[in-house]
Write a structure and sequence with these properties.
With 207 residues, the chain is an alpha+beta fold. It has a four-stranded mixed β-sheet with strand order 2-1-3-4. Helix 1 packs parallel to helix 3, helix 1 packs across helix 6 and helix 4 packs antiparallel against helix 5. It is globular, with a radius of gyration of 17 Å.
Length: 207
Amino acid sequence: MAAPFTLHGVNFSGPTYKAALGLSLMEVPFDFVWTGPRAEAKQPSFLKLNGFGQVPCLVDNKSGRAYRQAPSILEMLADRTGKYGGQSAEERIEMREWMYWDLDRLAPPLFRMRGQRLGFRQFGQLVAEMYTTEGLAALKALEDHLGEHKWLVGRRASIADIDVYGVLDYAGAGGFEIGDFPNTEAFMRRFQDLKGFGKPMDLIPKE
């Protein structure tokens, strides 16, 4: 039987990892198409699926509908499966707040510092210091919240946790020491114990 979805992405992409992690945790089978963000994602054939020219892009193999942007993909999967979607409308609102916060405050500095260290991005020392300061501030806000909560929203893991974990997994590669944030480190260990959890190279095929 064909998989219900095809995930277009690349194995070193944090947002692709978020989508693959959500699919795995929600036990949704998927096919994978390696789609490099600087080449394949700009081709006309891919732009017909995703006019943004970005990965991830998750295609419903039955309807042909393409879902774009990792947080939106996670929310759609939670709606489809009834898993990780929160217990009330208020929880769902709070989950979106965390995902928007992640996109605005946590992901940019951590991903950009990782990109610089891996040679994907080029910027000078002053910009690196700015991103480091912003990343540490975001990690401190997360640390404070996790000092009083086991999960980001409610009493069980949700797509907000998937979204945020999908950034935290790359923190070390960006030069951020998660060990300096014990509540966050404990959260990551709890998350890694969830059924269906996998690291990026476990869930996303190489080219």
